[in-house]
Structures are given as structure tokens and as C-alpha cells.
Amino acid sequence: MERVKSNPLLEPFTAPRGVPPFDRIESIHFVEAFDIALKQAYSDVDRITECSDEPSFMNTIEALECAGELLDTVSTIFFNLNSACTSPEMQKIAQQISPELSRFSMYVSMNDKLFERVKRVKEGAEELDLEQTKLLDNTWSMFVRGGSDLKGENRKRFQEISERLSILSLQFSENSLADTNAFNMHITDESQLSGLPDGVVQAAADEAKERGVDGWVFTLHAPSYMPFMKYADNRELREKMFRARGSICFHGDEHDNRTLISEIVSLRLERAKLLGYDNYAQYALERRMAETPEKVNAFLDELLNASHPAALRDRDEVISFAQSLGFTDELQKWDWAYYSNKLKVARYNLDDEMLRPYFELSGVIDGVFGLATKLYGVTFVERSDMPKYHEDVKVFDVFDADGSFLAVLYTDFFPRSNKDGGAWMTEYRGQRVKDGFDVRPVVSLVMNFTKPIVDKPSLLTFGEVTTFLHEFGHALHGIFSKCRYGSLAGTNVMRDFVELPSQLMENWAFQSEWLDSWAKHYQTGEKLPGELIERIKRSAHFQSGYQCDRQLSFGIVDMAWHSLTESFVGDVSDFEQQAMASTSLMPDVSGTCFCTDFSHIFAGGYAAGYYSYKWAEVLDADAFSLFVERGIFNRDVAESFRRNVLERGGTEHAMTLYERFRGSAPSIDALLRRDGLIGN
Fold it and tell me: Do residue 413 and residue 473 come from a single domain?
């Protein structure tokens, strides 16, 4: 391969804090970088395999942990950018490199000589500390679950499946992004904007202007779609938007994800069976807190039994309220947000548009960062000299209470056509100890919040504020990490434990002491009135039954897909409807399918794991009850959570870490009480 002149990915990162040189990286650089990094990674593995010394923890397990460092760096940067700031060139490279990365992974996990060395270390009498023991256990598990015990055709088939799945998940995500971007609703008749707040209308006008058309343009991206469904009086247009959003990748065209779903779930099942499991859920849950599909399903059933009667009451209340306003038709899914919001306004005199002026983005940043300062003593200092991958990005140094450097934090708040939907936390560099030096992390928060418009800054909804808190909780998990090995550090924990730090942070959104400390009107400087704060608190349980049922429906359909014991050959939409029937509250809408855009389980890491959001809610409600008991800004409680959970990553079993913080196992009752599903 002809070397690309001055490839910044292959040179020392000389920017402040050693962050990636985003300002110099071009797509073409990744082609050469992956080629060289893969060669180095193979060489690193061969060096361990061919080592003539007796296998030991240091020359085998620790050496394997450190192998392929350049490949890890290049892959991390590439796939993060492919999600946050992609291009056709990046997507093409992703399709080409993913099977190569899968082949490398198989080269490691199916390397008989290497596995034999790992086995001898595991069977040896070497004295190891807690973190070394955990790394050894994870390494052993990686080999066994990665097919090391397979032979002949089974081994070959396992490798073929792994390579194919790496491609399918990418295709699923790319289809979702393309189909989301493919739809827009262009309005030229101003009367069709009835009910929409001025800020929403202006944002649609700005979108139209960017596209070079007159009028107003609405898209399926959350900051455009959600307020339209909540406020637009025109029912026909709400239906049009709902059907468009509900039929992403469900049109029988090149972006249709149904065949991908069938192939993904069937290949996951086949891979699990090759390893001796009855279904994929058994395989996935073996290394999680829940442990078995039976425990997950029992957990989901327990919550559904508690929430469904309340969800039915929530639905009936909205129907009755809509009828009181003269609505005579059957309530459909495109009516829910509209009439539900009107009921909320009538009951609590509270609405997102009332709150937006007090949630200007820069103020929210101050509030969220300030919360971390109150709890943990950390501070954030914006940097203007750091390279960034997009002009919207902001960069911060994070310092501990004693002034020592903790991490770099990138924030990327607004939607773009080349950016995945949703919100997430990721890392460009994870924390670890290298050559005795504590390598501090480079953490990134990626959102899709309401953009600034011509005459207004970015004004967030209350839901966007809670989303910020959620992802910031993940960021703290990475920022505070204090582990020796990168694979155990930060958010590298059990999937049904990883949401605890994020969901815990959401609780502060409903605390008057926190809101009162920073929320103020972006024009007048007036503090968020105490009366509005009280309405926020009173509305905290609004439709909690419905919201719980909705989340449970996602977990239930996820478990249904991954509890299959035979390859899937049916209709994806029919399967989805049957699986989610127990949580159904309104008529199904023909021509729509939720799963074809369910990236969490088909393109992310939540396969047989979506239940973890509700699982972690049990943990976070129980954990926050300790803050309520001792003070919501109590530094001792926060320090205990930091020391026992946030710093420790995956160095011990998740329940051990939690019980060390809380003093006991969690109870589901705290969640049910918080959501108003049982009495105090």
C-alpha cells in the first residue's frame, strides 16, 4: 500500500492532553492506519503465543490486555466518528474493515496455542490480586465464549457468523440513518402550523431555509418530530408524521431492515447453539447480573403486573379528557402525545414550552457541571485550543477537588444529517495504567438537542435536561475511573449495571434545591419560579404506568427475539405485535414496525439486554433513596458512590460493588414508590 503522506493517526498525538488530532484526520487516513494497526496487532498476539517462557499472568494475560494498542486507538476514533460525523467514505470503510476486525478477534479467541497458555495460567498457582483475578476470569471467558473449544466445521462456521454479524449491524444502523434523513414534511400553508409553539415553527423555517425551500420543513429527528406530535392541531399531519417515524426501514426498499433482523436473530441463535446454549439470551445473560432469561422474564412480569393497571388508567384518563374537548374518534397512537400533553397542562398547568426559556443550553451545562461540583468537588474548564471534529463541539478539562487533572470531556449537542439519532456517551481514550502512569480518559457526550434558531439560543425541553443528566452520569463513570486495566475500567461493566450511574443522575431533575440553583430565564434572568418547580415535582408521576409499560414493551420484544430456539422465518411485524401484546394500550397501526429501527438491540450492545434500563431503575431508585435520607448533595454519600461504584469499573461483581455502597441488596419497592405505583 502506498503510504499516505503524514498520516496523523500513525504519529504521536501532540495536541494538548494527547487528544486525537481531529483537525488533521481525513477519511483516507483510516485505510492506511487500519492496515498497519492490524499488522501490529497480529504481531503482538504472535509474540505472546510464541513466547518460550512458562505462561504467567504477566507474559500472557497482561500482555494480551496490552496487545493491539494502535488498533484499539484507530478503531475507537473511527467508529466514534462514524456515529457522530459520518460520510459515504467512512461508511464504505466501515463495511470493509468490520469483517477484518472480526477476523482478528477470531484469530485471538480461536488461537489454540494462545488458549493453552491462558489455560495454564488459570490452572496455575500464581497469587493474584483482585483486579488481576478479574482480568484472568474475563480473559478465560472471552476465549470460551469466543469459540475456543470449537473444532472443525463448527469453528469455521462460528467465525463466518461473527464476520457476517459485524456487517449486518453496520447495515442496520446505516439504513436507519438513511431512512430517517429521507423523509421530510414540507409545509407551505401557514394554517397547518396551528398549535405549534413559535420556537418550533421558527426551527422548521430555519430547516426549510437550509434546504433552499420556502415555508417550513419538519423531519423525523427528535427535536423536530416530538414537538410536532405534541402540539400540532392538524391530526392528519400528526398521522403522517407518526406513520413516517413508525415505518423507518419498513418500506420494502433498499433500506428495509426486516431481512436484516431475520438474519441477525437467526445467526445469533446459531452462534449460541454452537456454544451449547438453547438460545441467545442464555448466552448473553450468563455474564450479567440477571444471569438467566428466567430471572429477566420474572422481573419484567413483576413490573408489568405493577404498572399495567396504572397504564390502563392513564390511557382511559387521556381518552376521557380528549372526549371532554370534543374528540369523538377512537384514540390512535398519533393522538397520544397531543392529548396527553393537554391533560398534563390542564392538571398541572405545566408544559415544555413554559419551561424552555429557563433551560437555555449554556445554563443547563452550568447546572449539570455544577451538580458534579457539589457532589464530587470536580470542576470543568473549557478549552479553545483543542482539536475538534465539528464546529458544534465543545471541549473541557475536568479537574478533581484537589486540582489534579481527571479527564477531557467533549460535548456535541445538536442533530446533523451525518449523525446518528439519540444520545450517548463514548470514549476516545479509556482510563488505564500504562508503564506505571495513570492514563486519564477522553470522554465524549453526543446528543441531538434542540438547535438554536435565528433569534433564540438553544432552549431545551425538560426531557432533554434529563437526557443530559443521564448521559452525564455515564460520563462520570468514565471520568472517575481508577482501574489498572482498560478492559475493566469506566463503563466496562455488566450491561445491566452500566445504566445505574446514568439513571441515578436523572433524579436531580426533580429536586427543587438543584433547579433553584441555576435555572433562570434566558432573557430576563428571572429564576425558575418556585411554583413551576413544584409543578414539575407534582407531575413526576404523571402517566408513570404508561411510561413503565412502554419501556417494558421494548424489553419484552427484545427477550422474545433472543429467546427463539429456531431460526426466524416469519413476519417481523407479526412477531413484534404478538410479543408486545401484553403491553398494548392502543390499536396497532398498519404499515408501521418498531423493530426495524430498534438500533439498541440490532446495531448496539443491548441484545437480550434492553431490560437493563428497568433493572437499573430499581438500582437507581434504591440508591437515590440514600441521598434523600441524608441530603441530596451529601458529599459523604456521593464520595461513597464514587469510591465503590464509579471508580471501580468492572473490577468486581456488580452486586458486590452496589452492596458495598448501599449496605444491602436493592429492593424493587423503592422504584414502585418513586413512580407512584405503590404507596409510601
Answer: yes
Would you say 555 and 307 are in contact if contact means Cβ atoms under 8 Å apart?
no
Q: How many domains does the chain have?
A: 3
Task: Say if residues 556 and 300 touch (Cβ distance below 8 Å).
Answer: yes
Residues 233-250 pLDDT 10s = 999 999 999 999 999 999
Nearest to 415 by CA among 176, 219, 228, 229: 219
Q: Output the domain CATH number for residue 500.
A: 1.10.1370.40
193 and 138 within one domain:
no
State whether 87 and 136 are in the same domain. Answer: yes
Residue 161 lies in a domain: no
321/54 Cα distance (integer angstroms): 75
Is 76 within 8 Å of 20 (Cβ atoms)?
no
**Which backbone phi and psi does 406 adopt, to 5 degrees?**
-110, -45
C-alpha cell at 444: 465524549
Domain that holds residue 397: 356-544+613-674
CA distance 533 to 71: 49
Tell me if residue 471 is catalytic: yes
pLDDT exceeds cutoff 50 at 433: yes
Angle, vertex CA 414, rays to CA 408 and CA 416, nearest 5? 115
Residues 188 and 145 in one domain: no
What CA–CA distance (Å, rounded) separates 176 from 261? 13
Whether residues 136 and 195 share a domain: the answer is no
Per the domain annotation, does 368 fall within a domain?
yes
* 473-510 pLDDT per residue, tens: 999 999 999 999 999 999 999 999 999 999 999 999 99
Question: Looking at the predicted structure, is the pLDDT value of residue 1 above 50?
Answer: no
Arithmetic mean of pLDDT, 69-79: 98
Asked if residue 446 lies in contact with residue 421, where contact means CB atoms within 8 angstroms, the answer is no
Identified catalytic residue from 174, 360, 471, 647: 471
Give the torsion sign (CA, 121, 123, 124, 125): positive
